[in-house]
Amino acid sequence: MTAIERLWEDFQLPIRDALHCADGRSCDVELDSDVPNGLRVLAPFELDEMLESDPSWVSSVDGLIEVDLASKGLLWGGEGSYGSEGFIARLAPDRALVWAIFFTESNPFDRIQLSGNAATFRSTSGFDVTVDIDDPGTSASG
Questions:
Q1: Which distant-in-sequence residues (6+ apart) come within 8 Å of 111 by Cβ?
Q2: SS3 (DSSP) at 51
Q3: Dist. CA 109–CA 126, nearest whole Å
Q4: For 89-105, b where at least 16 C-beta lie within 10 A, e where not — what string?
Q5: How many whole angstroms separate alpha carbon 90 and alpha carbon 67?
């Protein structure tokens, strides 16, 4: 079991603007309204190393909106422990993590629009992030 899967068992994500995949890959991300999908995927990093230096640097997440993908699981969006935090995620049918993206300054995500494989998540502060639900590390256009 990867570090992110262990955190997800308790519905926790690291407090860092990052994309995490269940297979253990993590990349920094940043919100960017100048790019079509609203998100830049940056350099990869080792989550195990980050957690080793500060294992308490995590936020509990709670869902506010979900879209059922039937046998493919669901999309989930919501908030972190602090008012400025938000997250978006894809879960397997058993609610196991497929991938999650956490933002420290997005505010909670409370709307999801799905068009094919492109999902646009909107935060309460008006940030729109569009991702390919099968490969969130690539650009998606809806």
A1: 65, 77, 121, 122
A2: helix
A3: 9
A4: bbbeeeeebbbbbbbee
A5: 9
Domain ranges, ordered by start, for the chain? 3-132
Q: CA–CA separation, 52 vs 1, rounded Å? A: 16
How many other CB atoms are found less than 10 A from the CB of residue 42? 13
- 58-108 pLDDT, tens per residue? 999 999 999 999 999 999 999 999 999 999 999 999 999 999 999 999 999
> Looking at this protein, which amino acid is placed at residue 107?
N
Q: Are 61 and 11 in contact (CB under 8 A)?
A: yes
- Side-chain half-sphere exposure of 75, counting CA atoms within 13 A: 24
Which residues are within 8 A (CB) of 55 and not within 5 positions of it... i.e. 6 or more apart? Answer: none
- Assessment of whether the complete model's pTM goes beyond 0.85: yes
